[in-house]
C-alpha cells in the first residue's frame, strides 16, 4: 500500500533552519540568491527563471528589469534594485547582460557575452561595454539589423520607450544609491539623466542631496537654484536649501575656529 504521508516526511527530522534553507532554493520563497541545489549542484529552477528574463524584445526585457527594480525598491531592497536597474540600463544601451551557458550545446568561446558587470561602472564604461557587444556581434557572424532607413512607427515607438526606460532607471538607481550613501554614483547617474532630460527637477534634487552629503555646498546650491527655476513652488527644494544654508554656516564656523587655533598656536610659539 502506498504511503499517504507525502513529501512532508522529508522534513520530519529537519530543523527550522534546514527547512528555510531548502525553501530559499525555490524562487517563490527566495529571500536571497542561492545558485546551488544544496548538494553541490546548480539551482536549475533559478537558472530557468534567469534565462526567461532575457526572452523577448529589448523593450520587453528592459521593461521587465525596471519593473523588478521598482518592486525591490518598494520593499527597501536597494542593492537588489540597483542590480535590476543596471540590467535595464544595459539592455537599453544595447548590451543584454547574459551570462554564458556552459554545458552541452553551449559555445564557451562566445566573446559577445560578459559574465559579470560591476555595480560601480560609470556611464562611459557602460557605453563602452555596449559598443563592444555590438562590435563582437558584427565580427562573430551574427546578423545585426543595420538598416537605418527603418522608420516604422513601431520601431520609433520602441526606440523612444527604451530611451525613456534608460533615463528612468538612471534616476531610480540614483534614488537607491542615495539610500545606500553612494553619493558619487548618485551624481553620475543624475548627470546621465540631465544629458537626456535637462529639465528633470528630480535629477537636480537628488544631485543636490548627494552634494550636500559630501559637503559640496556650492554645487548643491547651484542644483537647488536650477530646480527652483523648474519648480518655483517646490517645498522640497526650499527645505533642502535651508539645510544647505545651515550646513554652510556650520562649516564656516568650523573653519573660523580652526583659523583661530592656528593663530593662537603661532602666537604661543613666538612668545
From TrEMBL:
Keywords on record: TPR repeat
TPR repeats: 201-234
InterPro entries with a match to the protein in the record: TPR-like_helical_dom_sf, TPR_rpt
PROSITE patterns: TPR
Record keyword Glycoprotein present: no
SUPFAM superfamilies (UniProt xref): TPR-like
Protein name (database record): Uncharacterized protein
Amino acid at each position: 500500500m502506498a504511503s499517504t504521508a507525502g513529501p512532508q516526511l522529508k522534513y520530519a527530522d529537519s530543523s527550522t533552519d534546514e527547512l528555510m534553507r531548502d525553501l530559499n532554493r525555490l524562487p517563490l520563497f527566495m529571500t536571497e540568491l542561492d545558485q546551488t541545489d544544496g548538494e553541490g549542484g546548480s539551482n536549475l529552477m533559478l537558472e530557468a527563471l534567469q534565462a526567461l528574463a532575457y526572452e523577448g524584445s529589448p523593450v520587453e526585457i528592459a521593461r521587465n528589469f525596471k519593473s523588478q527594480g521598482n518592486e525591490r525598491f518598494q520593499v527597501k531592497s536597494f542593492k537588489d534594485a540597483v542590480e535590476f536597474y543596471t540590467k535595464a540600463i544595459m539592455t537599453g544601451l544595447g548590451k543584454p547582460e547574459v551570462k554564458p551557458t556552459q554545458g552541452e550545446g553551449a559555445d564557451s568561446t562566445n566573446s559577445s557575452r560578459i559574465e559579470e558587470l560591476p555595480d560601480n561602472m560609470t556611464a562611459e564604461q557602460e557605453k563602452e561595454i555596449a559598443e563592444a557587444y555590438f562590435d563582437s556581434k558584427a565580427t562573430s557572424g551574427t546578423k545585426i539589423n543595420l538598416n537605418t532607413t527603418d522608420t516604422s512607427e513601431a520601431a520609433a515607438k520602441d526606440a523612444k520607450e527604451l530611451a525613456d526606460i534608460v533615463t528612468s532607471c538612471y534616476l531610480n538607481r540614483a534614488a537607491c544609491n542615495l539610500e545606500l550613501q553612494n553619493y558619487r554614483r548618485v551624481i553620475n547617474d543624475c548627470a546621465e539623466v540631465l544629458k537626456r532630460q535637462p529639465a528633470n527637477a528630480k535629477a537636480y534634487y537628488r544631485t543636490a542631496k548627494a552634494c550636500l552629503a559630501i559637503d559640496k555646498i556650492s554645487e548643491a546650491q547651484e542644483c537647488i537654484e536650477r530646480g527652483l527655476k523648474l519648480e518655483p513652488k517646490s517645498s522640497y527644494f526650499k527645505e533642502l536649501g535651508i539645510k544647505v544654508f545651515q550646513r554652510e554656516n556650520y562649516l564656516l564656523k568650523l573653519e573660523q575656529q580652526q583659523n583661530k587655533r592656528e593663530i593662537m598656536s603661532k602666537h604661543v610659539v613666538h612668545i
